[in-house]
User: Fold this.
Amino acid sequence: MMLVLLVSAGIAEAFVVTGRAAAAATVRRDAAIAEVLAAAAIASTTPKMEQLPSFEIAKTETREGLYGTYDVDIPEAPKVVDDARSTFKTKAQTKKNRNKYVGIFAVLLVGSFIIPMLQYFWYVRDTPDSLFKTKAPPPPPPPKKKGFFG
Assistant:
């Protein structure tokens, strides 16, 4: 179908027309080619009716709503069968790779806790009010002078 329309568009191109008529013919030809290509793309990607899943109506229920009663069709869902194969690793595979996982855990632990702490201490080491330098306590006040009565 698409090939026939493209060939006919090519045959229509054989008639040479000049001026406004040529522009209109070119627009019509381009629109026809675009329509053919779009129809071909839609036809090749749209599932056929035989491929669509069908649900048989299992039962019809009558429900009471705000404005009265109404019927609801309850479809019967297809029965899904679970895949019962185990996807867990065996004991031997786990034991063989244990050292690799311990190493990965250690790297993540260092990367998430220790590196930020070291970075923080690196940045605050030169500040005057650092965590590591403590100020000397102020000197005690001078003793009060003894007065005449005391």
Remarks:
- The beta strands are 57-65, 68-75.
- Residues 98-124 form the longest helix (27 residues).
- The first strand starts at residue 57 and ends at 65.
